[in-house]
Amino acid sequence: MAKQKSIQTTLEVVGDTAPDVSKWESRKLQLIILAALSIVLYANTITHDYTQDDAIVINDNEFTTQGFAGIPALLKYDTFRGFFKVDGKEKLVSGGRYRPLTPVMFAIEYQLFGYNPVIGHLLNILWFTLLVLVLYLTLERLFLKYDTSSKWRYMIFAACILFAVHPIHTEAVANIKGRDEIICLLGSLASLYCAIRWYDERKNKFMIFSGMLFFIALMSKENTITFLVVIPLALYIFRKASITVSLKSVLPAVVGTIVFLAIRSSVIGWYMGGTPMELMNNPFLKWTNNGYVALSKMESLPTMLYCLGKYLGLLVFPHPLTHDYYPRHIEIMSWSDISVIASIFIYFLLILYALLNLKKRSVLSFCILYFLATISIVSNIVFPIGTNMSERFLFMPSVGFSLIVAYLCWKGNEKYPAVIKGIFALVMIGMIGKTMTRNMVWKDNYTLFTTDVHTSTRSAKILNAAGGTKSNKASRMEDGPRKTNLLQEAIQHTTQALEVHPNYKNAMMIQGNSFFYKKEFENAVRSYERLLSLYPGDADGESNLAVALRDTGKYFGEQKQDLLKAEKYLRRSLAIRPKDVETNRLLGVTNGIKGNHKEAIKYFKKVADLQPNNALSYVNLYNAYGAYGDDENARLNYEKALKLNPEAFTK
Predict the structure, then answer these.
(1) Same CATH topology for 459-578 and 581-651?
(2) What string of DSSP letters covers 575-643?
(3) Measured between alpha carbons, how far is residue 524 from residues 227, 460, 529, 580 in Å?
(4) CATH of domain 459-578
(5) Secondary structure letter of residue 295 according to DSSP
(6) How many percent of the chain have pLDDT more than 90?
(7) Stretch (H or E) spanning 489
(8) From CA 34, how far away is CA 623, in angstroms rounded?
(9) How far are the Cα atoms of 16, 37, 88, 583 from residue 542, in angstroms, in the given order?
(10) Alpha-carbon distance 471 to 491, whole Å?
(11) Is 515:551 a contact under the CB 8 Å cutoff?
């Protein structure tokens, strides 16, 4: 009982009633500041559209857009199944993805509000704000008995401010799909909080809460599983618990993990997939003899280690930022690259320090090991993640970084208070500015892609995406210099994408479309033919090629009066789409002008068969039969045309 009273007394001391706590150390005031800061910081995203991966889980997901009716399917299938809309394609991503919680949230929002990105952005801000507050409460709980002075409240306040304002989080918060990162970390921290409460108060209900929250977090994203290391580590460091007790604290989370894995395996199985040979799903490929070859683990490892160093660099100096780190924005690195060597050296020192000071229950040891545990799952070293790296992957690990910086500032403040506070304030102001300006890049796909393409200049994916958005925008514009320039930029982007990724199907398609909209029909034909030479039978490629061939033939016939070329292209188009009305009509016109009236009649009859209720079909047949000298059939078609449209011959 004496021990219980001691705990209660400590809890009272850290509250607002403590006499020696200044107003800036006030718990309530700090929480209000953190909440207000989080909301204001991302308020400029509320009017943004759906962007980037939002299409996968929200506005282009056949299950999410069904609202309540789609929820069973969201729980039943791989997370990507609703986007691909056909079975099998979701296996393009190694290991599959089962993250149903946030898609279910989006389905509920879609049911209640329809296509409404404002609601999605608003809720992301509120969830992020809640996360920042839970981070504060969790750190407060950790330090409650670790340090009996009140000065540590400055430290956790600083850590939470740094986490809230860090620009690296814009991808997770400004992109609605990033809610999986928010809920994942929120549930993980809440589970840790409950585990600590269990240890402090010995109430089993907190063990139950811890397991439930852990399971919820896992249903949002699998990264939660790294907290199986974080939870016992926190008890070991901050409560000086024995290894046995520390491991006991994580048992509810283990149960939650087993339940989640059982559900996950029943939905998508245990198959982790082979080695993807598509560069956009596996960055560890090299182009050899007109094809891709997978890199060995030893060949891939330097690039993975470089990315780990890049993550540290972005945490320390978050500029420039980009949503795209696909090949070859990150080039294939070698063991001799200085940046790889530097990364190895830094991580070696971090690991060495953490291990040497682990028995001392060092806060920095906890922070370092927390960072290493949570970054490991997205490092490609444990298992492939389908890309080199991503800024959103730092969302969970950045808690460790924020606490390290705050801890060092706290210690430095003892000797150089004015200097430390001044530097910290300036850095925070800079980060706030960077976050708010970076938010605006996430306004819509066009803004995002056309901005980040200037940063990720060697990424085939962003080059393709920028080309696609410019091509689509130009296709809706009136002919003129602006449209021409936009299409030329799209062609340049896709050309660069194909230099990086020579068999990139989407880039060939967009390049062909851009040439088509620019009325460079022969170049469009060549782009589609290149695509089909690599992907024979591709339905979209064949369809676009047929249209391009048709319009090329029309161009040579109408603009160049080159009937031989016109007929050649039209016949090739017809071979792909024999029931295309316009191609048959154009071949009829071409043969009629050439004097091949019998051939013209054949094509016009095909048009009439395809469109029996169109008066113009019979007008063309009337003219063709008349030119051929078949007056009887000419008369019959004349009558059919007038029956369908009495004004058919007056227009």
Answers:
(1) yes
(2) HH-TT-HHHHHHHHHHHHHHT-HHHHHHHHHHHHHH-TT-HHHHHHHHHHHHHHT-HHHHHHHHHHHHH
(3) 52, 20, 9, 19
(4) 1.25.40.10
(5) P
(6) 87
(7) helix 481-500
(8) 79
(9) 71, 53, 22, 15
(10) 8
(11) no
Rounded distance between C-alpha atoms, residue 387 and residue 300, angstroms: 12
Domain covering 581-651: architecture: Alpha Horseshoe (1.25)
Query: How many whole angstroms separate alpha carbon 369 and alpha carbon 359?
Result: 13
Asked whether 292 and 285 are in contact (CB, 8 A), the reply is yes
Whether residue 477 contacts residue 514, with contact meaning beta carbons closer than 8 Å, is answered with no
pLDDT in tens, 149-171: 667 888 999 999 999 999 999 99
Residue 17: Cβ within 10 Å count: 8
Cα 417 to chain center, whole Å? 42
Quick one: which H or E segment has residue 485?
helix 481-500
Report domain extents, the chain. 23-437, 459-578, 581-651
CA–CA separation, 461 and 440 (whole Å): 21
Residue 31: phi and psi, rounded to 5, are -65, -40
- Cβ pair 465, 445 in contact under 8 A: yes
pLDDT tens readout for residues 443-489: 999 999 999 999 999 999 999 999 999 999 999 999 999 999 999 99
